[in-house]
């Protein structure tokens, strides 16, 4: 089973997040999210958890 880590850079304006394959170090599914669209981490989690299943 492939293991992934959620990696990213969360700042005041944007959050840049991606998945990293722990065995190979390959980065995939990188996306940038605007802080204006998701005022809280909880709102981002609720929104994106539905779209990634």
UniProtKB/TrEMBL annotation:
EC number: 2.7.1.2
Root EC class: transferase
One BP annotation, GO: glycolytic process
GO molecular function, one term: glucokinase activity
Record carries keyword Phosphoprotein: no
Ranges in coiled-coil conformation: none
Keyword Transferase among record annotations: yes
Keyword annotations from UniProtKB, A to Z: Kinase, Transferase
InterPro entries attached to this UniProt entry: Glucokinase
Similarity annotation: Belongs to the bacterial glucokinase family.
Protein name as it appears in the record: Glucokinase
Protein's organism: Klebsiella pneumoniae
Gene, per the UniProt record: glk_2
């Amino acid at each position: 089973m492939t293991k992934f880590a959620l990696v990213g850079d969360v700042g005041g304006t944007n959050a840049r997040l991606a998945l990293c394959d722990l065995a190979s170090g390959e980065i995939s599914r990188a996306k940038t999210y605007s802080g204006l669209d998701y005022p809280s981490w909880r709102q981002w989690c609720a929104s994106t958890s539905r779209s990634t299943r």
